[in-house]
Amino acid sequence: MHVAVVVGASGYNYLIDHKGAIYEGRAARVYGSGEAISNEDSKGWGVVGAHAKGNNAGSCGICMIGNFDTGSPTDAAVASLVRLLTYKASRYRIDATSSDEYIDLYRNHLVYPNIAGHRQVGSTVCPGRRLYGLLPTIRNEVARRPGHWDAVTVDVPGVVRWEIGKLRSGGLAKV
């Protein structure tokens, strides 16, 4: 998988173009020569994006570049999306075909598909009807690759590491 670093501001963790190139959006750190771009800081913590208001912590925002109401994503772009989602699902033990509980910063208990379209977590038509229609196939392909995992609840107030300058403890809880 080839991932490039995007210079500039992006709320997304990753962006994928029509040729299937994957770009790191919200940069994690300066990577060493030959080091894989993981979108994690040096301690393995994922970078919190700004892609889905109120649902950024504990999630990964991937922008497929294009208008998928008027056109379909290319095969190369979808293949890169599947590879990236497979990597994330395997690394973080995510069941791609399931839904899990998400506890937001305000302690609201919400349930989302583990691979969701932007419209499922916010008031938008994103990712467009043609890409949104591919999500069941994409979820199944991702699940076929790394396998299935036990559910994990992300308690965002518990995993937020800094609050007004103080280090907080917390983490993931088995369901």
What would you say this structure looks like, in words?
The protein has three helices and ten strands; from the N terminus they run E-E-E-E-H-E-E-H-E-H-E-E-E. With 175 residues, it is of the alpha/beta class. It has one domain (3-174): Lysozyme-like (3-Layer(aba) Sandwich), CATH 3.40.80. Helix 1 (75-92) crosses helix 2 (129-144). The longest helix is centred in the middle third of the chain and has 18 residues, at 75-92. It is globular and about 40 Å long.
Present the secondary structure layout.
Blueprint: E1 3-5, E2 14-16, E3 22-24, E4 62-64, H1 75-92, E5 99-103, E6 109-113, H2 129-144, E7 152-155, H3 156-159, E8 162-163, E9 166-167, E10 172-174
Parallel strand pairs: 1-3, 2-4, 5-7
Antiparallel strand pairs: 2-3, 5-6, 7-10, 8-9
